[in-house]
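Teaching note: in complex prediction, the entire set of molecules is handled at once rather than each chain in isolation. The prompt given to students was simply: 'Predict the structure of this complex.' The entities are:
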Amino acid sequence: MTKDCRQRVPSAPLLRGGVSRRALIGALASAFLSQPLKRACAATGSLVFEHAYGISTLDRPAGRVVSLGYTTQDPLLALGVVPLAVRQWFGSFPYGVWPWAQPHLGDAKPQLLIGEVSMERVAALNPDLIVAIGSGISKAEYRVLSQIAPVLMHEADDADYGTPWDKMTRLIGRATGKTGEAASLVSTVRKQFADARERHPYWKGKTAVAGFHWRSQTGAFTGADTRAAFLAELGFRPTDRVAELSGPEEFYANLSPEDLSPLDADVLVWISNFDEAPDLVTLPMRKTLNAHHEGREVFAGALLAAAMSFGSVLSLPFVLEQLETDIAAAADGRTDTIVLSAQKAGLLP
Amino acid sequence: MKTWIWLSLLLCAALWLSLFSGARSVPLHDAVQAFIAADSTNADHVALLYVRFPRVVAGLVCGAALGAAGMAMQVLTRNPLADPGILGVNAGAAFAVTIGALLAGRADGALLAFLAFPGAAVAAVAVFTLGGGLRGNASPVRLTLAGAALSALLISLVTALVLIRGESLEVVRFWVVGSLAEARTRPLLVMSATALAGGAILLAIATKLEALALGETLSRGLGTRPRQVQATVLLAVTLLTGAAVALAGPIAFLGLMVPPIARRITGASLRPGILASAMLGATVLLFADVAGRLLFSPSEIPAGIMTALIGGPVFVLIARRLSPGAIA
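The expected output is the structure of the full assembly:
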């Protein structure tokens, strides 16, 4: 499932194979040759980014951008910078661009980078910026890529895949010379969240959990994960048991099939990336949860689950628009208000 | 007689632990209540009836089937390293199921599980043929190599197929590493019956298989028809392994490590050997599952990984004892 795509796809042995010896030698050679040139340029009004793998410097705002992060195409498109290439995370949409971002793509046809990162393909695009926030590339790959163009990584105090959406948007905005646009995009989305909180003041302080059930494994998204963060933006807090399971590097916690009580929140959103509603319907332990009996479950099927997983400046407003009514119906503490998505999935008590 | 009492006691201990240990502690009177008057809103009852009980049944059936199948394969191939996993039968079953799941678009357990049988059968015959079994000179090393090669081929094909489809590797995890965690969603009743049938066939043909183990010429003299016996044993092994894979995915090394212990306990006679091997197989698998459940609770380690952890060293031990050229 999605939570694992991020972990599995960029596994180290897989990626190491992606750096061909030729590319490495070529990159090292060019690094050696271009070193003095680079230092000379760095002095005059350039953009400096300090990040987890070091410092990247742009001489001027970038325009030819390769998007290596699994979700970075969204903020780029939102800022009007169509990437030369997009990294495929999951789903089968053309150019790796999901419906919430498609209007921003226009007629552009970015290349799709699937699986391991091919240095040669990136180099052939001749980019002036490689956005690799949330890409899972190793430091060795970072070094090679840096010889092709400046590489933007996550900041040192964020986890590999843990850069918050607003920070990601602002970083990319600065690198592409659109600081103002980025700030206004962020404040627009912030206002949408604030408006939603205002419409439903009783959400504040209630508990909400984003849960998943994949084959026989049930669990919850935790901490800074995009799905948990979305619920936090709406004023909810996780249940105490889920909060206990949260760690700085972990973005989900597996639960024992014998005890799903950590999921028993005022609002339980099932994140179902592959529309596995039937598996949930036939999960006996789910029927022991109060959230089930009191009609407080919300079902996020494939598209919404993906939008919550992306958790980007474009996908978050999309989720909010689609799920606000359902979350309100779940959180109001009344059994006669029916959660439509849960009804459609057959989850009602 | 004494050995059987011990074996039964061990198996009972494994069953008891399996039913009464886990993330949730269920008091005995609650457990009894769960079986008499189940309350679907009581988490203790649900844990017992829908999480632990199916696991115990699956562990019992799958472990016994693999123990018996391992014993039969080791005698048939006269190879102490024979095991449904090592000889590629597991991989064949997993491959067939994965192909089915990918073609059908959804990993729908119950129906697709039946594909495990043709998969296991084809792999069993292929390895036996590749290893020289038809010519009657299946040496331990040739069979093991043929099985390892076929396993590697099939598992990489499974991975490639999943990658091409662009789906998560999770789809395939169940069919590469066995686990009892999905027992609830598996066709328990049908597979238990299938395994029982396989076991019955095996027990019925046991004496003829013993004769065959003496060598083909000698067994012909004793009135057995080698090809027929071989085919019947392969059928039984296919039924047993297919049922085990359909319930729990490929459980590694279980069919390898249990039979030698069983033989040591029961002696050379095959019929009690198969029974003891089945009981030990179930015991080991249930203990492995309990350990996997408790070690990093609430996360679980699949039983297939636990058996591989124990079975790997056993494999090395047996392989080291084989003297070159000897037929065990």
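Point out the following to students. Chain B is about 75% helix and 0% strand. Chain B has a mean pLDDT of 83.
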